[in-house]
Task: inverse folding
């Protein structure tokens, strides 16, 4: 019988939640690495018992942990992330040049077909690859050396490379996303990269339609249709049907906020913006069914009206329905961070997300109803579901 | 023989069950030679105390011994005789930060 394993990274350790295919009773294992920030854990599609975990600390820096038995035991592997050559500057918050400095690994993405190959998205933004199970890491410097690199600026959470999508069909193609530079695509296994942000509109930029500078929060793909991408941007939800060449806004009827931007000359511009949030994911069996968790605004970072609602579109965007059964509908002021949603691939697709309040919610019916698997973990940074056959 | 006391997180990371680590250091006992010997025995500690490339002390790591803060001493400064002889331990401390 199939089983589900949910890997949860939190501010103070990692937790592994396990259940059978019914997903009604859950075993909780952890905390693993108590006291450490666990930004992300992810299992290999080629060997689900091979799991990689990003472990970090403001005191002692970055570690990468590896398990070969589904998270029962772990071993530290390589933690040396060194940029190729002498990294030049990017822009700091004040617009001045700031040297590239490694801070932490935000996201680990194991390869589709090889448990020993894994990619790491790091802050300050760069992508690294290991082909020996995480022992040694080499930067793929073509990304950081892109001609726009000197213009990249950090978002509020740091200049993080938080999304890595590997095309399962065209194995030379991969996507990454950086806050706040935007989305980039490589068609040559990561040697060279191009920005793919046409159609994005960000009102905080001097040129709202600039090639780079967009605060992309997360990007999702369905493995059966890798040319179709869904994006949760700082404001708005978008989709691309041509591998990122052009994006269209599909925020539709998502909740939004009235925003006033003050110009330096004293004038102001007012906008109604929709669909602020961090997470986005796609149903395992319905590539046009998409999930987001709208957050009130970039200045509030909690759910509108204190009601935690997942929004589902069955039409690939534009038409969204709120899902609230089993979720708190009053006095709820948590956030759901960018890597904290995932889906399993059982017949009735399971959806999972974690909150900064330490809850991990699960739906075993595609989002129609929800239950909290756990209530009181440290703030959840990431959630990854594994379906174990 | 040099005695080194590590913070709990690093003892856990390196799977050290004893309260302190005992190291033999060839030549003069300095911060550099002691940390080199420590990392040689426990490679997972590389990068946790000093930067991988610059070998500079990480900002929130401190080195204390004999009621003195040695953190900002040049790395080749001889450690106090009491540390070199094993009478006193070298303390590796995670600085107070946060609140």
Result:
């Amino acid at each position: 019988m199939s089983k589900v394993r949910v890997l949860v990274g939190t501010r103070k350790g990692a937790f592994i939640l396990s259940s059978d295919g019914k997903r009604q009773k859950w075993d909780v294992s952890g905390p693993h690495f108590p006291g450490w920030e666990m930004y992300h854990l992810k299992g290999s599609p080629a060997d689900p018992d091979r799991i990689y975990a990003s472990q970090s600390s403001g005191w002692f820096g970055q570690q990468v942990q590896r398990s070969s038995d589904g998270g029962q035991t772990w071993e530290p592997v390589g933690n040396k992330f060194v940029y190729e050559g002498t990294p030049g500057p990017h822009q700091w918050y004040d617009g001045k040049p700031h040297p590239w400095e490694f801070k932490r690994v935000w996201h680990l993405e194991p390869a589709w077909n090889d448990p020993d190959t894994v990619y790491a998205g790091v802050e300050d933004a760069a992508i690294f690859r290991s082909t020996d199970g995480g022992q040694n890491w080499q930067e793929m410097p073509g990304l950081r050396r892109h001609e726009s690199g000197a213009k990249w600026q950090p978002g509020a959470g740091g200049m993080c490379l938080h999304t890595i999508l590997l095309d399962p069909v065209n194995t030379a193609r991969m996507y990454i996303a950086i806050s706040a530079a935007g989305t980039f695509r490589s068609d040559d296994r990561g040697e060279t990269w191009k920005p793919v942000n046409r159609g994005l509109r960000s009102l905080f930029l001097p040129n709202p339609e600039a090639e780079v500078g967009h605060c992309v929060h997360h990007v999702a793909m369905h493995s059966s249709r890798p040319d179709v991408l869904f994006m949760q941007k700082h404001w708005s939800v978008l989709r691309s049907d041509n591998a990122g060449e052009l994006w269209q806004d599909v925020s539709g009827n998502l909740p939004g906020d009235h925003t006033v931007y003050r110009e330096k000359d004293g004038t102001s511009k007012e906008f109604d913006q929709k669909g602020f949030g961090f997470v986005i994911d796609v149903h395992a069996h319905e590539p046009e069914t998409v999930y987001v968790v709208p957050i009130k605004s970039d200045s509030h970072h909690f759910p509108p009206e204190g009601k935690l609602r997942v929004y589902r579109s069955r039409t690939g965007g534009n038409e969204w329905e709120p899902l609230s059964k089993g979720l708190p509908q009053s006095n709820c002021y948590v956030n759901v961070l960018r890597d904290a949603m995932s889906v399993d691939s059982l017949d009735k697709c399971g959806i999972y997300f974690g909150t900064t309040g330490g809850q991990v919610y699960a739906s075993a019916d595609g989002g129609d109803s929800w239950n909290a698997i756990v209530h009181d973990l440290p703030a959840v940074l990431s959630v990854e579901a594994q379906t174990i056959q | 023989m040099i005695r080194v006391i590590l913070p709990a997180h690093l003892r856990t990371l390196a799977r050290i069950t004893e309260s302190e680590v005992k190291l033999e250091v060839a030549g003069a006992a300095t911060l550099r030679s002691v940390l080199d010997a420590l990392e040689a025995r426990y490679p997972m500690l590389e990068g946790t105390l000093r930067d991988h490339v610059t070998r500079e002390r990480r900002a929130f790591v401190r080195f204390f011994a004999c009621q003195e803060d040695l953190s900002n001493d040049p790395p080749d400064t001889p450690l106090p005789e009491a540390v070199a002889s094993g009478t006193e331990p070298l303390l590796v401390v995670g600085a107070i930060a946060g609140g």
About this structure: Chain B has one domain: 2-94. The longest helix of chain B spans residues 31-41. The first strand of chain B starts at residue 2 and ends at 5.
